[in-house]
Design brief:
Elements lengths: L8 H6 L21 E5 L4 E10 L5 E7 L5 E6 L4 E7 L8 E2 L5 E5 L8 E5 L5 E2 L7 E6 L5 E7 L2 E8 L2 E6 L2 E10 L5 E7 L5 E7 L2 E4 L8 E6 L5 E6 L6 E7 L2 E6 L2 E10 L5 E7 L5 E7 L2 E4 L12 E8 L5 E6 L5 E8 L9
Antiparallel strand pairs: 1-28, 2-3, 3-4, 4-5, 6-7, 7-8, 8-9, 10-11, 11-12, 12-13, 14-15, 15-16, 16-17, 18-19, 19-20, 20-21, 22-23, 23-24, 24-25, 26-27, 27-28
Length: 354
């Protein structure tokens, strides 16, 4: 997403996170079949924070403004407090991930490099995953420590995978650019890549360096954002006219339109091994975007499922979900500031609904 100049700190900080829109009230869509307890993850001393990923043990990775909003730093929430990971150059979008061993990947500043490099935190100082000083960033890490992310080859981007800290360029679908967003326990990488001619960008699964085009919902673009152990992929794709994108689940390689909360667009951003998808969706009538849970092809507004702990919140975007159904993302807290949140279901989320 292209960055805009001249924004306030808070606007610049949250700009990469997609389709926030007007916020309005809290719940506006159908309530999920379970309720959720909300935990405010707070910040590192600044005004805002964003939660990007959660592991099976409930640890959360993300980023936050620090005191006086002077800089953005990555964090790991260990269940009690935020552990600071160091400064992030620029605005990082949501590229932090944590595996079940507590290892974190993302973007870090090394020395005087103003752009930053892909980084791994495994207890202590970050390890630089950069390739020959080129800008790079990491988006995902699996339980065995394989990492997926993106490197810059000159001024274009290529999807990449790191095995034992050794980087492999995964290439494209014939076009110039590609980007990796997720990796599963088998080492399958998901992301998106340009086709020959650069007129279309499609969601992709890489097995080794072999790229498989996942197709679209009839439009010219699709984006793979997360992959689970069975190879299901969550993301979003353009419709026939490319006027809007809808959250999409690729199961057995076929795209399924997950629909919206009644509005025009939606994004699938995370999924768990049971196939539950989370992201964001527009409400009917231009009511803004809301954090969303999809069970099968039915969309639920997470704001409508909050218990008393979520009073005064507006959940804008859900980013990840673990096997226990815990969900992380960001929203407007009662103070009016954007904070990362953790939702914990009060009972198991059903995998099917009537």
């Amino acid at each position: 997403m292209t960055k805009k100049a001249g924004l306030r700190v808070s606007e610049r900080f949250l700009l990469p996170l997609a389709i926030a829109g007007a916020l309005g009230g809290c719940g506006g869509g159908p309530a999920p079949p379970v309720t959720f307890t909300l935990t405010d993850l707070g910040t590192l001393g600044g005004a805002e924070s964003v939660a990007c990923s959660i592991n099976e043990g409930g640890k959360v990775a993300g980023y936050s403004l620090v005191k006086d909003n002077a800089a953005v730093h990555g964090f790991l929430w260990d269940g009690k407090s935020l552990v600071e990971l160091g400064e992030v150059p620029g605005t990082p979008a949501c590229m932090y991930d944590v595996n079940d061993a507590g290892q974190v990947v993302g973007l870090a500043k090394f020395g005087d490099d103003k752009m930053g490099h892909a980084a791994l935190w495994a207890g202590g100082a970050p390890t630089d995953l950069g390739q020959n000083g080129q800008f790079s960033y990491a988006n995902a890490i699996n339980a065995s420590g394989q990492i997926a992310g993106t490197i810059f080859v000159g001024y274009i981007t290529h999807a990449a995978r790191w095995d034992n800290l050794k980087m492999t360029d995964l290439g494209t679908l014939g076009g110039r650019q590609s980007n990796a967003q997720g990796i599963n326990e088998s080492g399958l990488v998901v992301g998106f890549a340009e086709l020959t001619g650069e007129s279309e960008t499609h969601a992709v699964i890489w097995k080794g360096t072999e790229a498989k085009d996942l197709g679209t919902l009839g439009g010219r673009f699709s984006f793979g954002m997360a992959i689970n152990k069975t190879g299901q992929v969550a993301g979003y794709a353009g419709l026939i006219a490319d006027s809007e994108s809808h959250a999409t689940l690729w199961a057995e390689g076929k795209p399924v339109d997950l629909g919206t909360l009644g509005g025009n667009g939606s994004l699938g951003l995370g999924l768990n091994d049971s196939g539950l998808v989370v992201g964001s969706s527009d409400l009917k009538g231009g009511g803004g975007s809301r954090a969303t849970l999809w069970i099968g092809q039915k969309a639920y507004d997470l704001n409508s499922g909050l218990d008393g702990t979520g009073r005064g919140w507006t959940l804008v975007e859900a980013r990840d979900i673990n096997a226990a159904g815990q969900i992380v993302g960001w929203g407007k807290s009662p103070s009016g500031q954007s904070h990362g949140f953790l939702l914990t279901p009060t009972k198991p989320i059903p995998l099917k609904v009537e």
